[in-house]
Amino acid sequence: MDSALNPTEDSFQMARQAMIDSQIHPMGVVSEKLLATFADVPREMFVPEALQHICYCDEDVQVTPGRYMMEPSVLARMIQALKPQTNHVALTIGSGTGYNTAILSHLVSTVVALEEDMELVKQAQSIWDKLSYCNIVAVTGPQGEGAPVNAPYDIIMMNGSVAEIPLEIKQQLNIGGRLVAPIKPDGRMMAQVTLVERVKEDVFSDVVLFDSGTPYLKGFEPEKEFVF
Questions:
Q1: What is the pTM of this model?
Q2: 134 falls in which pLDDT band (50, 70, 90)?
Q3: Pick the CATH number of 3-212 from 3.30.1490.100, 3.40.50.150, 3.40.50.300, 3.60.15.10
Q4: N or C: which end of the chain has fewer CB within 10 A?
């Protein structure tokens, strides 16, 4: 871990274990490899220093205006539903400061991290470099378009709620590939975390997994209706 964190390293390690024991595991996350990954990745490095003391609470943390790091229990359940394998190529959409991507990078072969905010890309890349996470490829571009140049993907994760999942993004899945996202149409109080699988070329199945209060991912909010 970065030497700057050494004075409080023990307390952060205890907080990570408490997060697993009291938030993630009780919500049905049983994958030993996934739980071990949450124990290894220092969540505190991915938030502003002033928020490090609350980053292990089970809530969304705002890392920059309008952008959030997803609460641990929701993130863990989403990743478990994706069933990541060591030979998978993954896409994270709206990678932010890079925590969700970092977790996934321990479980798959390669992660393409799409983010349209260049400052967040720089922050994330700096953290990944410090932690020697070498299987992450940062891509800058419109998040609503996905990352078609590197497609197809075995798994895709949306790092925030969306009003709907664009077909263009679903079509970047391999046949048999899985996508997970909290879906919250306009007017809903809660999002429904939904797993989408590409069954055939133009056939997709979906199943609602659970509800969450995850904030919208920038660019995926409901379209505002014009009032004449």
A1: 0.92
A2: very high
A3: 3.40.50.150
A4: C
